[in-house]
Amino acid sequence: MPGPEIVAKPASLLLAVGKVPLSDVITACRALEDNAVRRAVSEEGGIGIPALRVVLERDLPDAFRSRSLTRGAWGFHRALVRASGVTTLAMVAEALHSILESHTEAVSDSRMYEDPDGYEAGYQRLRRSYGRMLDAVASGDPGDAAGQWNRHWTALERILLAENSEVTVAEVVRSAGETRR
């Protein structure tokens, strides 16, 4: 049975045709993940802490070693949304994550890999941020967890929009297509 990733491509194309700015996708993803974080912490949420720990302790280091840190980082975002226990939220998030992952690869991966020390430093910052998030989720305080995740997103948004704050989904989709050729 197909997973939530099946909605990613059609959603990307619809947003691209509509000339939607990437900042709009970021705003939607932040709102969706804020809700997911709060649900993951609450009794209504899923069993997310063990899954998040696996991403932090196994998947992210594996991604770092294989030079696919962007994929590992967005894997944490995906696991966080799945931890909410809401399938529909995960499906919608997958469409947004797919767009944002493509853009993250375009704006950060090549620079990180050219500078091994910078790549290592970025990885360590990411691990600390995700570790703080995991601690906040485990604390059981939805407000604290959402606040921590908002701080992470503020830093991420600066990275995503640093080169061009007016970038559109169409440009991201076009760039991702050129990269895959």
From TrEMBL:
InterPro entries: GntR_C, TF_FadR/GntR_C. Transmembrane segments: none annotated. Residues 24-155 form the GntR C-terminal domain. SUPFAM superfamilies: GntR ligand-binding domain-like (SSF48008). The keyword Transcription applies. Keywords: DNA-binding, Transcription, Transcription regulation. SMART domains: FCD (SM00895). It holds the Pfam family FCD. Gene3D superfamilies: GntR ligand-binding domain-like (1.20.120.530). This is FCD domain-containing protein. It comes from Rhodococcus artemisiae.
